[in-house]
Amino acid sequence: MTTIYDIAKATEYSITTVSKVLNNYPNVSEKAKKKVLQAVEELGYTPNSSARTLATNKSWMIGVVFAEHLGVGMAHPFFSEVIESFKKQVELYDYDLLFVSRNMGLQKRTYKHLKHRGVDGVVVVQSLGEEAIEYSTSKLPTVFIDMPIEKSSAVYSDNKQGGMLAVDYLYGLGHRKIAHIAGRDTMFTAVERTRGFKLATREKGLTIPEQYIVDGGYYSYEGGREAMVRLLGLEAPPTAVFVAGDEMALGAVKVIKEAGLRVPEDISVIGFDDIPLSKHVDPPLTTIRQDKQLIGQQSAVLLLDKINGLSKNNQDKIVPVQLIKRNSCSAL
Amino acid sequence: MTTIYDIAKATEYSITTVSKVLNNYPNVSEKAKKKVLQAVEELGYTPNSSARTLATNKSWMIGVVFAEHLGVGMAHPFFSEVIESFKKQVELYDYDLLFVSRNMGLQKRTYKHLKHRGVDGVVVVQSLGEEAIEYSTSKLPTVFIDMPIEKSSAVYSDNKQGGMLAVDYLYGLGHRKIAHIAGRDTMFTAVERTRGFKLATREKGLTIPEQYIVDGGYYSYEGGREAMVRLLGLEAPPTAVFVAGDEMALGAVKVIKEAGLRVPEDISVIGFDDIPLSKHVDPPLTTIRQDKQLIGQQSAVLLLDKINGLSKNNQDKIVPVQLIKRNSCSAL
DNA sequence: ATTAAGATGGAAAGCGCTTTCGTTAGGAGT
DNA sequence: ACTCCTAACGAAAGCGCTTTCCATCTTAAT
Fold it and tell me: Which of A276, A321, B30, B199 is least surrounded, with the fewest CB atoms within 10 Å of its CB?
């Protein structure tokens, strides 16, 4: 491995000067600059980032901690897009992304591990919040996605508004018996979407029977299936259902079809997320779109500002959602 | 930041002993072990990985370089699953994944950057191969996914076999006019699938007109659309088409429907990959499934062995594919 | 009691880099 | 000719850790 010393020897300058050239310090002569750069080229020198990190206490890495209770990790159709957008943004400023593992050595906690790695910042995606305290109380710049955390920054969609949009749309279509397949209430997003649902139905003067709101778990296909089965089992099934997640909605649609009913003729279904799948299924799913692009980008901006000490106080960014009309809802 | 020195001071042992405890060296007393571990706990000590890496020349990071010509990065429905599986496997051995950016500082080449980061190994996913040389000629342990590289290890599906399976199935269904929407021939996988197609059709004694094989580009939905338009424009359109990728197949199906024809009644379509989408679309897509799980896991195993010096010579692992019958193909 | 062997602990060098602070040389100003 | 300033460069310390090699202290064997 060729080091800064090799360059120094080759150019007959000191390692100090070499380092200065490499870091664009002002007080080096043009001549020195040229010689050093040339030697770097010839010897194929690559700086060692560990050494630099050790000396500067800056790693140029951002830690990513991913939701694991969904089981798919980075293959998640929604979060993978968010993170990709996040990555694109931080890349502009020369940061790399470090995906850390949970079972690292003896230290079980991801937080410890991130600390160990010396990342400059952390983005945590849809954790359940148990770990949140460690991050929010530490000096490590952190941004949460999909979950507001006291004493930390976060960015998430306007979930409540999304729930209201869904209900408004369904109501406008003439539906009055509107059900809701909710996400597990341990998740902030789930709670908010349900809140939007309740708010809007109340606003419209609708009385929603208790059984019309059913827990579908962690936004999974299977959860959607089970929830829909229960809805269909009711003495007075709904004519429309607002499902808090697209995958869950697909499960629901499947059950409806299996019951010999049609979507949207017999039951209208509206989802949430707008994952890539949604426009391809049958029928194409009407849904509340989250702006993954913007969520990723905004969280990157927030985090970068924090890292650079530009924004001292924490803040939440709420990203607008949008109703995407496709064919899974129809007028009554 | 508390360091090994703080622990030494607190326990009245030397940093050497502290280090030995932390690294499970044999020759330290139980007493010392206990005291040190306790101090570690009390002072909230976290080892600094940069320092350790600098001293040991081992980073416990694996670099991931992703295909960019597909544009979606890590949100790719197929590769994200492969990488997730890869991640799960390397996590078992305490490695973290580093996703590096391309435009790092002045050094444009990803390879240089990986070198700079001191990763212990690299997994490159569906690059186009131009960069391959740098990796294969260097000492950096590397494994390629979806592309065999001379002087390097690789793992990929049995693409040729997949192509043959598809044709065999279609043939068995009674089809004789079988077309093929291929991937761009700069990709190894595309070439192999096409090769399988040609081999099988020849085997069956079929004569496939030249226009029956059409380039669909980089496996995109749009590419599939355009290709199918051309196929439909033929004086004698095919009764079945083997599409080299699922997303591309969806585009093809869409065009068929738009033309007022039905899948599979009028035209049978079989895809390749089996992405999550495939089973949800209408009709559920018959396809050749790639074992993403196994591909990811195998490449991890291969890479880890290389890193640990267990396997000197390079090798390719070919992962079997499987025909998944759904409803997009029917007997003639 | 004496010695050898094993167990335990520590000094110090080194990993590759940054950065502070001095030193030197040359040019400008008088 | 002399002083003063500035520009250019380098010595050395330090970042936090590992690891070799040597010193010391026990313990068991004779």
Answer: B30
Tokens representing A86 are 């996040």
Cβ pair B271, B323 in contact under 8 A:
no
Report the alpha-carbon distance of residue B185 to residue A203 in Å, rounded: 58
Calpha distance A99→A113 (Å, rounded) = 11
Task: Name which of A133, A136, A142 is nearest A63 in CA terms.
Answer: A142
Footprint of strand D on the protein (CB under 7 A): A 12-17, 27-29, 31-32, 51, 54-55, 57; B 1, 3-5, 15-16, 19-20, 22-23, 45-48, 51-52, 54-56
Q: What values do phi and psi take at B225, rounded to 5? A: -60, -55
> Are A86 and A121 within 8 A, CB to CB?
no
Q: What is the dihedral of CA A54, A57, A62, A66, to 10 degrees?
A: 80
Phi, psi at A75, each rounded to 5°: -90, 5
Q: And the tokens for A261?
A: 């009913």
pLDDT surpassing 80 at residue B108: no
Backbone angles phi, psi at A106, to 5 degrees: -85, -30
Per-residue pLDDT tens digits for B168-207: 999 999 999 999 999 999 999 999 999 999 999 999 999 9
Residue at shortest CA–C1' distance from D20: B16
